[in-house]
Structure formats: C-alpha cells, structure tokens
Write a structure and sequence with these properties.
mainly beta, four-stranded mixed β-sheet, three-stranded antiparallel β-sheet
Amino acid sequence: MRIANLIMFCVFGVVALLPSPGLADGKQNFSLENRTGYKISEVYVSAGKASSWEEDVLGEDELANGETVNIGFSRSDKSCKWDLKVVYDDGDTSEWEDFDLCKISIVRLFYNRKKGTSWAETE
C-alpha cells in the first residue's frame, strides 16, 4: 500500500511541475540571448505602438554574457510587433524596434562598446 501511495505522489508531483495551459503560451514567446560581452541588468519589452516601456522583465535578475532568458506572453497579447530595450550594468542602453515576435523565436544581442554600436540577429 505504501508503494502505491509513493508512486501516486511521484506522478502528481511531476504533473504539478508541468507548465499550466494558458500561462505564458503566447505566440510571441522568444528566447533572448546575451552575446554583448557585458552583463544586462534590465530588459524591457513593449508593444510597438506603446508610448512607454513596460516593467523590467528580468526583475531582480541579471543576464550575464552568454546566458539566455525565455520571455513569455499570455494568450491575450495579440500584437506581433514589439520593441526591446536593454540596460547594461554600467547604465548604457540599447534599443531595437519592430521585432515581429509572431515570426521569430530567438533574439541574439551584440554590442561593440568601443564603436558604440549594437545589433540583433533573429531566428
């Protein structure tokens, strides 16, 4: 009897760890890869027609060089065109406009601080 209870507990424990339907399953979900050579302390993603930036999606976290973060949207978000802003650990910023997140799933960020240029590659 104890073995059966242990098996049921393990099965329900695994099911509880699976993502819930409807949470962060929007078609705009994407992975953000930091290949800038610098730590990113803030990331903002806003709809292309928005007049201000949304909240920092990293919260208290940071995105070190070489790391990736998955950014998810709810199903209710319908816009495909999104803008992106990052703030580096020294306060410098980079911005990009009109990422079509309905068509891309990976955004790789690059930055040449000496030249003051940043760019993104998408997939």
